[in-house]
Design goal:
The protein is α/β, with parallel strands linked by helices. The chain has 22 helices and 13 strands. A 9-stranded mixed sheet has the order 5-6-4-7-8-3-9-12-13, sandwiched between helices. The chain binds adenosine-5'-triphosphate and magnesium ion.
Length: 594
């Protein structure tokens, strides 16, 4: 039996009262008929005179002869309703096993910004998601975070990353493993969109802007963020699995925090960089056989202690110094190995200064390309730290605005983002960035990659993205997940049975059955030009992938015939465009005396 609704109770009470009023009048007329024992005549008289209000005026009477049949009438209505409630089932005809269906143009229409086509995230040939923070109908507000999954070669870059860069609608942070997006879209962004192009190239560091952590460290909180991130991304999976290693990791963290805090508070601005950390490490020492040995680094921290007793640097260094000489030596060795990537000259040079000015992404249209090597991950933690510092600084900038949103919204297009390692607390950033005008398109090859990136929080990460695009692939668990998410529909099933012989019979029976809209094996076989788009609260869409060549700015992409982006010539681009668009150059003679 299903639950009784409030409205049904109200109807029942009204009907009970009405039945009592009607019975009150019928009973009065029956008594007036004087038919005594002849019940049929009395009833016929009562019905006949029911509406003769001019002769028999309508009034309610409350004596026992009249009230008894009234109460009986009310009880009869009550019993009828009890029977109705007890037998009524929760029938959903045609939806018994699921109500999924494919979405249509009408379903996606309220989510698209039709007035300004550039103000949309492109999801497929037909589906878009407006970047407007508030839609005309609040029911159509969705966060702008997207998870894209597509096997190798399924068109993650061509059908998602490139079309969205062509939109020129926000500042962009682009993870670009092959450098392919920068090469093909860089000129279009600079010339057509007037974007400032910034590049962190960990593959070819000579072709990179410089990036230094320290200008982004505004408080001790950021020191802890950088150190935690560095430790998380430079720990091997085996080391993390051994809880016995926890002591060493914590000790290294204490020493590294002390060094960062020291450089941050004691060094000149031009010395605040990773080289200074390595310089401090080079004067650290500990001796197994001499617990009282004082290293040059000990003296530096002793001096700082006199100047600023109890500061973060001293507190963390004193924590490290609690270790015995032998242990301290091991800690120094471990940390030295951990910091080895920074010892490489190219990396020292790359991190000696900062040219990225990450905060400016929120104030002027900027495209920041993060080029990471595809096959080795040694330096990728630098990108993870960059992401965390960038988000912290952008959050701070947004909080200072009157509407608490960035003046220029920022979109992160994380092509092959699993390659860069783990961005600590990514799930927290993803769940809060919407209100500040930041959104993210996370692009993976398989769902298992998402899981591997953050075992504990991957479901929260995927769950906090209102949009999911599947470009196809062979990985089984991904196909099962997408098939399950798309849902089940109810289909009709006809069963026939036939018995042969001298008394043969033939029967036919129709019933309903639940069936995946696309089962995992069908999901694996979706044609190469098709994709699945799922937007929370809306039916899933099976659509064509976006035809890049149809984008109005396609001609400005290298794919459309334009020149490839060149790092060396990037500053000439805007100037070149200026001269290309200048019809006449007039030379003027300057007065020599000026
Ligand atoms: N000029 C073109 N016209 C139509 N389709 C194209 C064109 N160039 C490439 N493609 C399609 O794009 C697919 C490759 O796209 P893309 O490199 O974006 O895939 P991907 O998923 O990013 O691959 P990877 O995993 O290697 O990064 C090809 O399989 C092809 O079907
Ligand atoms: Mg790609």
């Amino acid at each position: 039996m299903r639950q009784v609704k409030k409205s049904e109770i109200i109807v029942m009470v009204v009907l009970m009262l009405l039945s009592m009023v009607l019975m009150n009048r019928l009973a009065q007329l029956y008594i007036l008929s004087n038919c005594g024992q002849n019940f049929t005549n009395g009833i016929l008289f009562a019905f006949d005179k029911f509406f003769h209000f001019d002769v028999y005026a309508f009034k309610l009477v409350f004596n026992s002869n009249v009230m008894f049949p009234c109460i009986m009438a009310a009880v009869a209505v009550l019993l009828a309703f009890m029977y109705y409630f007890s037998t009524k089932k929760n029938f959903m005809y045609g939806k018994e096993h699921g109500s999924a269906r494919w979405g249509t143009k009408k379903d996606i229409a309220p989510f698209i910004d039709k007035k300004n086509p550039d103000n949309n995230i492109i999801l497929s040939a037909t589906e878009r998601l407006s970047l407007a923070p508030k839609m005309p109908n609040p029911l159509h507000n969705r966060n702008k975070n997207v998870v894209v999954i597509g096997g190798s070669g399924k068109g993650k870059s061509r059908f998602i990353a490139k079309p969205n860069l062509c939109q020129l609608n926000t500042s962009f942070v682009v993870t670009d493993p092959k450098g392919e997006l920068l090469a093909e879209c860089g000129n279009m962004l600079a010339v057509q969109g007037g974007y400032k192009i910034k590049i962190l190239n960990l593959e070819e560091m000579a072709q990179s802007d410089k990036f230094n952590f320290f200008p982004y460290i505004k408080s001790e909180k950021e020191i802890l963020i950088v150190v935690d991130n560095l430790i998380a991304n430079t720990s091997s999976a085996e080391a993390e699995a051994h809880s016995g290693d926890d002591f060493w990791v914590k000790s290294e963290r204490a020493l590294l925090t002390a060094l960062f805090a020291y450089v941050n508070s004691e060094c000149r601005n031009d010395e605040k960089n990773i080289s200074s950390i390595l310089d401090l490490m080079s004067v650290a020492a500990a001796r197994e056989d001499d617990e009282d040995f004082v290293s040059p680094l000990d003296i530096m921290f002793q001096e700082l202690e006199k100047k600023e007793p109890g500061c973060l640097a001293c507190y963390m260094y004193n924590t490290f110094k609690l270790a015995s000489g032998k242990t301290a030596k091991s800690i120094l060795v471990s940390l030295g190995v951990r910091l080895a990537p920074f010892a490489i000259n190219e990396v020292r040079e790359l991190m000696s200064d900062d040219e990225l000015d990450l905060t400016s992404l929120g104030t002027e249209k900027t495209a920041l390309f993060l080029i990471v090597p595809e096959t080795y991950t040694t330096f990728n933690f630098i990108v993870c730290i960059l992401y965390q510092l960038l988000l912290e600084r952008l959050y701070d900038l947004a909080k200072k605005q009157r509407n608490r949103r960035l003046p220029i919204p920022v979109q992160i297009i994380g092509d092959e983002i699993a390659n860069i390692g783990q961005i600590p607390n990514l799930q927290r950033y993803i769940s809060t960035m919407r209100s500040y005008g930041i959104s993210i398109i996370l692009i993976f090859q398989t769902l298992t990659q998402v899981e591997a990136m953050d075992k504990q929080n991957w479901k929260t990460i995927v769950g906090n993205c209102d949009t999911f695009v599947y470009l196809g692939g062979k990985e089984q668990s991904t196909n099962e997940y997408v098939s399950k998410s798309v849902g089940k529909m109810t289909i009709d099933q006809r069963q026939t049975n036939e018995t042969k012989g001298s008394h043969g019979s033939y029967g036919m029976q129709d019933s309903t059955l639940g069936r995946d809209l696309l089962d995992p094996s069908e999901m694996e076989k979706i044609p190469g030009d098709k994709c699945i788009v799922m937007l929370s609260g809306v039916e899933p869409f099976q659509s064509k992938k976006y035809p890049l060549e149809k984008h109005p700015r396609y001609q400005y992409l290298a794919d459309g015939g334009a020149e490839l982006f060149s790092f060396e010539r990037r500053n000439e681009l805007v100037l070149e465009d200026f001269f290309d668009n200048t019809e006449q150059v007039v030379s003027i003679q300057l007065d020599e005396s000026v």
